[in-house]
Here is the input.
Amino acid sequence: MNDFEVIIIGGGVAGASCAYHLTAAGIEDVAVFEKDQPASKASGRAAGFITPDQFLSTGTHPDEHKYIIRFWEEMAQDSKLDLHYGDAYTLARDATSVTYLEQLHEETTIESHLLTGDEIGDRVPALITDDIEAGFMFENGFSLDPYTATVTVLEDAICEGADVLSESVESIDTLASGSTRVTTSERSYTASAVIVAAGAWSKSLVSDINVSLPLKPRVSQIAMLDPGQTVELPLINDPDLELYYRSEVNGEILIGGGTGKTELNPETFSSTAREEFIQEVAEKAPQISDQLQESQMTGKWGGLCSATPDRHPLVGEIHSNGVYVCCGFNGEGIMYSAVAGHLIAELLTGATPTFDADIFAPDRFETPEEDFEIRSAIEW
Ligand SMILES: Cc1cc2nc3c(=O)[nH]c(=O)nc-3n(C[C@H](O)[C@H](O)[C@H](O)COP(=O)(O)OP(=O)(O)OC[C@H]3O[C@@H](n4cnc5c(N)ncnc54)[C@H](O)[C@@H]3O)c2cc1C
Here is the structure.
């Protein structure tokens, strides 16, 4: 007799989404192990952009996008979670980028508009559009507070029967009985299925069962600016500047980027923003808007994301004892976790996957040990 039917390791948005979708699918004997506070790592430090243009770097995924929108809209009903709607733009500042945008515009079935730089200037007067050649525009993107979002999903799962245990998982081992044992700082537990949703820590956890994940922890960063005046910026991805930005409800401007290209050790990671990123924001903010010339930086931080070779997450079974991973979100986990949790629940209940499980399969790489280059979520 196992202690739990399913153990989820990690109380970030991925673990929360798995717990939510499993309990919604009728599996209530679910335990989430979190070594710190829920949403205290990447999930509490994100920008919270929910915009389809963030997918475009990995191709267009209209069905997944529709589900993500529906999921967060449902979560926002009768809860503390607010969704801040606005148009979402992806800008192209040179001819190569324009060609890329045109190609994606042709391919996508997500409703979008391809605009010239002047048209963007008419819609977003705060932007300097002199060197903006074109842009994609989606109506009804939104942003949310990622901490509140994660906690809302987790609380919903708790209401449906999930337990959250404040224990750090130290090892995983597969047993001859077919169950899997999870040993924490407190004691050992067994389960019929274990889902490793431990963000950047997932790679080292699964090495216990001799699985090598193509996953590299890397930094993403955010700076908050006080412009000292009202500046209206919608949700903007600006790949050629390697930044994304938007106005916040309190009038501050959130600027994200600073994707590190180096693999980091999660055990020694510092969430302090790097000096190069602070310099980059100071130099590039005045190129975004004249109204940001005199802005003051009021906050800055970094968080750990996990890169994969093709920038898609790793979601699926990695061991026949029922060990699964749900990680590697490449800076898009607030969005993708909705789809990933849904897929995990379908895989565990034997339902036919709604989405193409192959693009998320952890074993999709022919040479998983091969080194790969870390790429940013907003890079073309
Ligand atoms: C600056 C920044 C901006 C971002 N902006 C966006 C955005 O706009 N839109 C978007 O979609 N995504 C964004 N992201 C990405 C998003 O935040 C992540 O992809 C997502 O939060 C990953 O969630 P996770 O649950 O996999 O990982 P995490 O949030 O890191 O959660 C993993 C959890 O596992 C726990 N854990 C680890 N090891 C153990 C163990 N041994 N035992 C128990 N618990 C353990 C950790 O304590 C942690 O709570 C951004 C990220 C950053 C850093």
